[in-house]
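Project outcomes to date are best conveyed with an example. Our students and postdoctoral researchers have been running inverse folding experiments weekly, and each run begins with a structure described purely in tokens. The record below, which covers 226 residues, was selected by the lab manager from last quarter's runs and is presented without edits.
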């Protein structure tokens, strides 16, 4: 069955679109993996929020996007009404899911920020425990900060992880406190995850419209030649 010129154009546009969606799916997996690697180091700070959950969701979401996009490519090339409508349905569910995830990220990022600030204060107050001290050193080295509010929280005996150069305690410490830097990190991570999710959902919406047009055209063509 041959499609008319307009539907053939939509078919190949949908095919190219799904190739791009496949790349978006891979990008989501990469972003989720990178953020998971960075954020998991701070997981022990808060017992109230699972900070790695959004990153894991992105990895799962990216994998689903890749699979659905591959399904859409097959449906478009084979001019299959069943595959195209199935693709459109799952794409619609995926778009709704991504919007919900983005909304939850934006809603709860503030609560997560405050929880992690309090968690860092608790860990810092118990820094004599070796595990806490190691965690504090990791955070101070990665976020380039020192103490809760400033290096003055250590007096004049700050650890090596606070130093910008030289050897502790005779070194120049980072000027920013880790509470503020940790809050900025959570905010920026939440913004990246939320806006990327919405951006991909917007792109997928274009694919959903194209899939609906193609499926409708295939059905009309089938009726015409029935």
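After processing, the design step wrote out the following sequence:
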């Amino acid at each position: 069955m041959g499609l008319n010129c307009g539907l053939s154009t939509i078919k190949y546009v949908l095919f190219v679109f799904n190739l791009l969606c496949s790349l978006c799916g891979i990008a989501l997996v990469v972003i989720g993996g990178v953020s998971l690697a960075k954020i998991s180091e701070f997981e022990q700070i808060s017992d109230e929020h699972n900070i790695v959950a959004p990153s894991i969701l992105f990895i799962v979401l990216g994998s689903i996007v890749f699979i659905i996009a591959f399904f859409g490519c097959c449906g478009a090339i084979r001019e299959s009404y069943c595959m195209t409508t199935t693709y459109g349905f799952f794409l619609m569910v995926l778009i709704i899911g991504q919007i919900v995830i983005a909304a939850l990220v934006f809603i709860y990022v503030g609560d997560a920020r405050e929880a992690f600030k309090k968690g860092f204060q608790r860990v810092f107050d118990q820094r004599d425990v070796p595990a806490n001290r190691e965690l504090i050193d990791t955070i101070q080295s990665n976020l380039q900060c020192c103490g809760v509010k400033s290096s003055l929280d250590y007096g004049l005996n700050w650890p090596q992880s606070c130093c910008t150069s030289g050897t502790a305690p005779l070194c120049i410490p980072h000027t920013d406190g880790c509470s503020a830097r940790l809050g900025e990190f959570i905010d920026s991570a939440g913004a990246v995850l939320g806006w990327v999710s919405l951006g991909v959902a917007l792109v997928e919406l274009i694919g959903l419209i194209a899939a609906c047009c193609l499926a409708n055209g295939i059905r009309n063509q089938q009726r015409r030649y029935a």
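Strands lie at 163-167, 170-173. The two ends are 11 Å apart (CA to CA). The training component of this project remains on track.
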